[in-house]
TrEMBL record:
Pfam families: DUF362 (PF04015), Fer4_10 (PF13237). Ferredoxins are iron-sulfur proteins that transfer electrons in a wide variety of metabolic reactions. Keywords: 4Fe-4S, Iron, Iron-sulfur, Metal-binding. It comes from the Bacteria. Residues 310-338, 339-368 form the 4Fe-4S ferredoxin-type domain. This is Ferredoxin. One of its GO terms (molecular function) is 4 iron, 4 sulfur cluster binding. It comes from Biomaibacter acetigenes. InterPro entries: 4Fe4S_Fe-S-bd, 4Fe4S_Fe_S_CS, DUF362, PSI_iron-sulfur_center. The keyword Zinc does not apply.
């Protein structure tokens, strides 16, 4: 039975958050006695302020650092954000998200080492060898500090998806290109989760993100913290809070298929789900045409899928010419023309990384007429 601690938390008061997480650790009977150094992995997707709800709030990271200090455990904070994995990029993101200030104040080690190693994982479905950032190898424990958000491709991102940030930047690009199908990508995320073995998952849902996540959505106050030793179960509870059906949750569907999750194997303790559930949480519009699958000859299915699958559209009036989309496109499908991006849809793999990482929300995902009218 996987126990998930669900707690109301009104705002980002450092003392309250620390007390809540300590309470959860007592319920879960988490013991750090045999640990010397633990890696804290927040979601630091891009250079955004904490109030934008794109990244894990720094007070959640601070609380975990202080709790570990109480056990005489060294905290290491690390992330491989979207885009290139460079020291300069890390410096900008750590500063903007408030993580550098927290680490400076608490004495936690903030990682700038961009080296990586490869871990053998024979039981993986998609990955038998997984590239991980070096701090994972140097620590004897891992804690996922996720943000509760919608996601353009994965629908939802939380404890498990957060661990994709353990993959160094260049390798992320390669994996996106190799795992274009939804189920393959979700199985890859589960491989990463199983291989990295987080001992604890904390989901920051105090202020979540709804709509066009994971970066262009709207902050939504939910007032909740979720803590569990089972990251998949934690994500399931988060999905229940926001009203996400299992059939619309690709990661959970893959986890069930692999025997990694059972709904009747989850025990929710703490506050009651019924007191926290929201009825009108906004999700990204669907980005696939699964209704075609198996109903047409493959060549015709591929033709219609190429026509109907949503595509990125660049709003040049909003664009500042930063080239973030150009630099991070896994398929190299974007060109810069007169300092503005233009996409080659024949090369585009519909990973929507450009939409995810645009700092100005200058990219929309355009759906075919049938989606706009019939499949809302």
């Amino acid at each position: 039975m996987s126990k998930v601690v669900l707690m109301k938390c009104a705002d980002y008061d450092p003392e309250e958050i620390r007390e809540k997480i300590e309470h959860a650790l007592r319920i879960l009977k988490v013991d750090f006695a045999d640990k010397k150094k633990i890696l804290l992995k927040p979601n630091l997707l891009m250079r955004k302020k904490p109030e934008d709800a794109v990244t894990t709030h720094p007070t959640v990271v601070q609380a975990m650092i202080e709790i570990l200090k109480g056990f005489s455990v060294e905290a290491v904070v690390a992330e491989s954000p979207g885009g290139p994995y460079t020291k300069r990029r890390l410096e900008g993101i750590y500063e903007a998200t408030g993580i550098k200030g927290i680490c400076d104040n608490t004495g936690a080690f903030l990682n700038y080492d961009t080296s990586w190693f490869e871990k053998n994982f024979e039981e993986g479905y998609m990955l038998k060898k997984i590239p991980f950032i070096s701090p994972l190898k140097d620590c004897d424990g891992l804690i996922s500090l996720a943000k509760l958000k919608t996601h353009g491709m994965a629908v939802y991102t939380g404890a498990v998806k957060n661990l994709y940030g353990l993959i160094p930047g260049g390798q992320k690009v390669e994996l996106h290109f190799k795992m274009q199908q939804m189920d393959r990508f979700m199985d890859m995320l589960l491989d990463i989760y199983l291989a990295s073995r987080p001992m604890l998952s904390v989901i920051d849902g105090i202020v979540a993100m709804e709509g066009s996540g994971p970066s262009a959505g709207v902050p939504r106050k939910l007032g909740v913290l979720i803590v569990s030793q089972d990251g998949i179960a934690a994500d399931f509870v988060a999905s229940k809070i926001i009203g996400l059906n299992i059939n619309d949750f690709p990661l959970l569907k893959c986890a069930i298929k692999r025997g990694l999750f059972r709904e009747d194997g989850v025990e929710v303790v703490g506050d009651r789900l019924e007191e926290i559930n929201v009825k009108d949480f906004k999700f990204p519009k669907k980005k696939d045409v699964l209704f075609l699958k198996g109903l047409l000859p493959v060549w015709l299915e591929n033709y219609f899928k190429a026509w109907l699958t949503p595509k990125p559209v660049f709003i040049h009036k909003k664009c500042i010419g930063c080239k973030e989309c150009f630099n991070t496109c896994p398929a190299k499908a974007i060109m810069m023309v007169n300092k503005r991006p233009v996409v080659d849809l024949d090369k585009c793999i519909r990973c929507y990384c450009c939409h995810e990482l645009c700092p100005e929300k200058a990219i929309n995902i355009d759906r075919a007429f049938i989606f706009k009218t019939i499949l809302k």
